[in-house]
Design goal:
One of its GO terms (molecular function) is metal ion binding. By secondary structure, this protein is mainly β. It folds into three domains: 316 residues, 7 Propeller (Methylamine Dehydrogenase, Chain H); 223 residues, Spore Coat Polysaccharide Biosynthesis Protein SpsA, Chain A; 74 residues, no CATH class. The protein is built from ten helices and 42 strands. The strands form eleven sheets. It has a seven-stranded mixed beta sheet, sandwiched between helices. Helix 2 links the parallel strand 30 and strand 31. Helix 1 runs parallel beside helix 2. It is elongated. 42% of the residues are buried.
Length: 652
């Protein structure tokens, strides 16, 4: 999955329990993690919206729910606090549990307070067992470094490290800022000595100091403040006290659970009960609400922002992780050195998004077909390409093509079931399309995204005007397809007076919807409103069964392409080509001293060797065996690793 536009939230469903914590790596532009009430810590890549791996945090008892996660400032380790009073330290690269500290973390049901030092990669702090004090850790030591008992009279909801430029911290290297649920904020040294205290007068859950050095923005009229959120949002200036309070009516009397500033302090993000994420613009003397950014179905208890303010991630009780792109440009351009030639306004958020679903499988003509289709789709605005391979491993050649094309894409795997291997009986690409449709349900069921679904086979030919036509689809749009067997085309028959469908001109007539897979497009909202919409493994009936499952009638169909008088898609098919044979190329003189080894490597298709066996009394038997394949060996749920392929070596 790839984040392709600003303001389009994605909801990642990789947990089986309420998600209580999220955190971005401070050293990686796209890496973030989440922890939930299923005992798992998930690691993600924000650019691809992709799960990289899952770590299971084990405990001696049954209570293994995770209620907070944080990265160390070097990005090498993840800290996970659990309801079993344990703090686990995980290695980001291997997933190994490096260390665990028992009976030192708060075991409450809500999000726990946990923080790591932004300067020292070995220092961390969390709320202690009763929730009213702090536990300090040196991650190089097997036991906690220190305990600060009963720092607050009530449970501590949030902790953060405070920069030493603040006036009451200047004589110390750093300080801790802790917030109790009753709205009491205390600044202390690492060994518990009191530095400063103030109260905001309302129940509170989160505290967020402005990110700049204290007083550095005074010349521009901005004072450094501490924002405290809970029943309302209050701002505090050490010299002046409480300066601002957003009324609780702004939040519909719901609790704010997390506040985060952008890196330059200009925007404040707030998340809380009701699952609503809001933005506030910071002005010299107040913060102005800019409105709702997006929302979850369940309450949000944690939130974080990527190092360059490109992504915001949220943790919700609805078992999802929310991810939204905060920048205006198409971030996939980083893959392509020529992407700067593409119009920077090519992707806008106010148009309907087209989801192009392409099933594909390994064959000699796969890469030429996919390259041709990619060259077409590069011209389409507001489009997401969902490519689904009929395989258990991702093709490295296909991954390289997708990244090089600078097209927003999702790359999925859906191997054909063993019981449906006969393409003439069961049809081809059904499992691929079902996988893509399920992905759309999982990703967009929680959103108001406007979209159109179109099934584009990799060997067809498309006029780019087709995509502007189908963007207007309200329910189901239909249009002719050229080069269909015997009749030369497949098209709906319209009454010229009413422009309504009265029949079908298709070689496989007799179906209620006698249409080719490339001859219709479906509204995303219609598909999501039909939970039973699916496809069947039966050649010739796949399209008809899918459209019937949408519970539509002929009167719901929307003829396009000039009332079905213009052909904008052709059912072309590449001529079959055999895989190259090792036996043929081995005759080249001085093969290893030529350009051919590298050329065959870059061809990125299988090479086969012919083998012959002769047995007494039996005819000669021949077959081909693959000796070189461009397939990677990364399973669907693992990170794809680019393993260099060695050229074939042939003795002269």
């Amino acid at each position: 999955m790839v984040m392709e536009t600003m303001g389009c939230a994605r909801f990642l469903r990789h947990h089986n329990g309420s998600v209580r914590g999220v955190a971005y790596s401070p050293t990686d532009r796209y890496l973030f993690c989440s922890g939930a009430y299923d005992g798992n810590v998930c690691l993600y890549h924000a650019l691809r919206c992709e799960l990289i791996r899952t770590f299971h945090v084990t405990t001696m008892g049954l209570a293994r729910n995770i209620n907070a996660v944080r990265f160390t400032n070097d990005g090498h380790r993840i800290l996970a606090a659990t309801t079993a009073r344990r703090l686990s330290v995980l290695d980001v690269e291997t997933g190994q549990q490096l260390m665990c500290y028992d009976n030192c973390a708060f075991s409450g049901r809500e999000r726990a307070a946990l923080a790591t030092d932004p300067i020292c990669p070995h220092l961390a702090v969390c709320s202690c067992v009763n929730g009213k004090g702090l536990t300090l850790f040196d991650l190089r030591m097997p036991l906690p470094l220190d305990f600060i008992f009963d720092l607050h009279p009530d449970v501590i909801r949030d902790i953060t490290f405070l920069h030493n430029s603040w006036p009451f911290v200047k004589s110390h290297q750093s300080a801790l800022l802790s917030l109790s649920c009753q709205g009491i904020v205390k600044a202390t040294t690492l060994d518990g000595r009191f530095l400063h205290c103030f109260e905001v007068g309302h129940p509170s859950n989160t505290v967020a100091p402005t990110p700049e050095e204290y007083g550095s923005a005074l010349d521009d009229g901005f004072s450094s403040v501490m924002m405290v959120g809970g029943a309302s949002i209050s701002s505090y200036i050490p010299e002046s006290g409480i300066q601002e309070r957003q009324q609780s009516s702004d939040f519909s009397s719901q609790q704010i659970w997390k506040l985060r500033y952008s890196s330059n302090g200009s925007i404040l993000y707030a998340a809380g009960d009701g699952g609503v994420i809001r933005r506030y613009r910071r002005y010299p003397n107040y913060h102005k609400c800019l409105g709702e950014l997006f929302r979850h179905k369940g309450d949000v208890q944690d939130m974080d922002i990527s190092p360059y303010d490109e992504f915001l991630v949220t943790a919700s009780k609805d078992k999802t992780v929310g991810l939204i792109c905060l920048v205006m440009y198409n971030i996939l351009f980083i893959y392509d050195p020529y992407a700067k030639k593409v119009d920077s306004n090519a992707y806008t958020s106010d148009e309907t998004l087209i989801f192009v679903i392409t099933p594909t499988y390994t064959r000699p003509t796969q890469m030429p077909d996919m390259t041709r289709l990619a060259q077409t789709l590069m011209h389409i605005k507001n489009m997401l390409w969902i490519v689904v391979e009929d395989s258990t491993v991702k093709s490295l050649a296909l991954v390289e093509l997708l990244e090089r094309s600078a097209i927003p894409f999702v790359h999925l795997l859906a191997a054909r079931p063993k019981e449906h291997q006969n393409v003439y009986k069961d049809g081809r690409g059904v499992s691929n399309r079902l996988k893509a449709l399920q992905w759309l349900r999982d990703t967009y069921s929680n959103t108001d995204q406007k979209g159109v679904i179109y099934f584009a086979d990799d060997d067809n030919t498309y006029d780019i005007r087709l995509f502007q036509e189908i963007r207007r689809t309200q329910k189901v749009s239909i249009f002719p397809v050229g080069l269909i067997a015997t009749l030369g085309l497949s098209a709906p028959i319209l009454d010229n007076t009413t422009a309504k469908v009265i029949g079908w001109h298709d070689p496989c007539n007799g179906r209620k919807f006698a249409v080719d897979m490339a001859g219709f497009a479906v509204s995303l909202s219609l598909f999501l409103s039909r939970p039973d919409a699916t496809m069947i493994f039966k050649a010739g009936l796949i399209e008809d069964y899918f459209l019937r499952s949408l519970r539509i009638q002929w009167t719901d169909l929307e003829p396009m392409a000039g009332n079905c008088t213009v052909i904008m898609v052709w059912h072309t098919r590449s001529t079959f080509k055999a895989f190259p044979l090792y036996n043929a190329i081995k005759k080249v003189k001085n093969y290893n001293q030529t350009n051919l080894p590298i050329l065959y490597k870059n061809l990125k298709i299988n090479l086969y060797v012919n083998k012959t066996v002769k047995s007494k009394g039996l005819p000669k038997r021949e077959w081909s065996e693959a000796i070189y394949s461009p397939q990677s060996q990364a399973p669907d749920d693992q990170t794809l690793v680019d393993v260099p392929l060695e050229p074939i070596t042939i003795s002269p």
